[in-house]
Every structure is written in structure tokens, then in C-alpha cells.
Amino acid sequence: MHQLSRQNQLWEETIPGAAHWSFQMRRGSALRLTDIEGGANLSVLFYNMEEKLERYNMPDTLKAQHTAHLTKGFVCYSDMGRVLASVIEDSCGWHDTLCGMSNAALVEAKYGKADYQQQRNAMHRNARDSMLIELGKWGMGKRDIVPNVNFFSKVSADEAGGLHYQPGHSKAGAYVELRFEMNVLVVLSACQHPLDPATQYSPKPVHLQAWHCGTADADDYCRNFRSENVRGFYNTELLFR
Fold first, then answer.
1. What is the domain extent for residue 51?
2. 8 lies in a domain?
3. Which end of the chain is least crowded, N or C, by CB within 10 Å?
4. Burial of 1 (0-12, 13-18, 19+ CB in 10 A)
5. How far is CA 74 from the centre of its chain?
């Protein structure tokens, strides 16, 4: 875990369970996500802040790095072959890239109906509608939702292709740190994972801390973690020369 100081820290915030938010992260800044209670899920989308048609591309991220999940060393590619963000530290070890996000029908079927008129802030939110609320703030909408990352969740595949969610994967205090290689719009929702077998609606809070960290040098771990990443960083750095 990187040590933060008053000189380099930008801000910090706690996202309540099921809450949603969107914000900008500049090139050379980093973001630590911390699972406060254990069992959190944070669904996240990334977009190029200057040209939002460029966004996180799950298939390219996975095939370029020969993986099906994210942990330290892996990067998040855009659909232009550039690196949006890099995973620079990770105590959790596995973050889901395959299963997408919850929607209103799924949440109602699993947990029952609880709308704002009856439950106020205890209403049952879902990740898709939460993402649409945040995207609307930036002039975006349904067509801009793409396969997302689910931080703190582990889903593995068996030999027949079945997907298996691992309850209790993320413990209290687990964290992952992202360094941003471009100016990035981050959109997130703290709703439960769509495969979470819990029978109660109980999304968990996540703590966010942002700081200045600088950009990757030639010996950077993420740059050299996979051979394709060297090219991805080069393509990204061309934007800033």
C-alpha cells in the first residue's frame, strides 16, 4: 500500500452501499478503493475524459493480457488500444471482469420491491440504473454502457463454462489501487454483484482516496507485466507529447 501525505493527497470520500458517483481522475493521479466491511462490490466504468466515445474495452483488456480477471500488474485498455488505468497495488487478488452489473428486474426478483416512495433512502437500487443516472450528468446514456469491472468480486469459470461466485472473497480492509494513465471519467456503483447469492439486500460501503502519484517510467511494473502493455503505454503517451 502506498503511503499518502497531506502534500500529495487530493481528496477522500466514502461511498455508502448501493450509492453511485462519477468524477474525473487526471493522468498521473491514483485512486485507492477500500472495502470497509468486507463483501463489497464496486461496479466501475472508465471513459476518456476528452473524448468519451473512447472507453474501457473488456475484450481487449483480457485478450491482450491473457487473463480473465484483474489484479496487480494488469491494466484497463480502451477501445483505441490505450491504457486508461493500471492496477498498481492489490490486496484482494481477483476482480471480476465478466459478469456485468445488476439491473432492476434482477434486484426485484432476488430481494423484493422497495421503491423510494415507501422506503426513501433504504430503497433497492441497482447498478444499471445508477450508472445511467451518473452518465446522464455527462451527456451520455444507454448506448454508453459497456461491460464493466466489478472490484472486490471473484467469479471463476469451470471446465463447462459455468460461472461461480465466491462469497466472502473480499475481507474488511481489502484494497486495490489504480493509477490513471489518461484523463479519465470514472463512473461507479456500490450495488451488489449480480451473482451474489445473498438473500438479503445488503450492499457494502467503499472508501475512496485519491492522490498525486506521477506517471509510469520505463521500468514500471505494469508497463512490463505483459509484452502488449509496452505498446499500450506507448500509444497512450503519444497523446501527451
1. 28-240
2. no
3. C
4. exposed
5. 13
Q: Is residue 1 part of a domain?
A: no
Say if CB 45 and CB 131 are below 8 A apart.
yes
For residues 42 and 77, is the Cβ–Cβ distance under 8 A? no
At residue 6, the pLDDT reads 66
Residue 12 lies in a domain: no
Using a pLDDT cut of 90, give the percent of the chain over it: 93
- Model pLDDT for residues 31-56, shown as the tens digit of each residue: 999 999 999 999 999 999 999 999 99
For residue 64, give Cα distances in angstroms to 57, 67, 90, 105, 140: 11, 8, 20, 34, 28
pTM (2 d.p.): 0.96
Instruction: Tell me the angle at which helices 58-65 and 227-237 cross, rounded to the nearest 10 degrees.
Output: 130
- 189 lies in a domain? yes
Q: What is the four-CA torsion angle of 121, 205, 97, 92, rounded to 10 degrees?
A: -170
Instruction: Measure the CA–CA gap between 185 and 66, rounded to whole angstroms.
Output: 26
**Which residues have a Cβ under 8 Å from the Cβ of 52 and sit 6 or more positions away?**
138, 139, 140, 144, 185
Structural domains in the chain (count)? 1
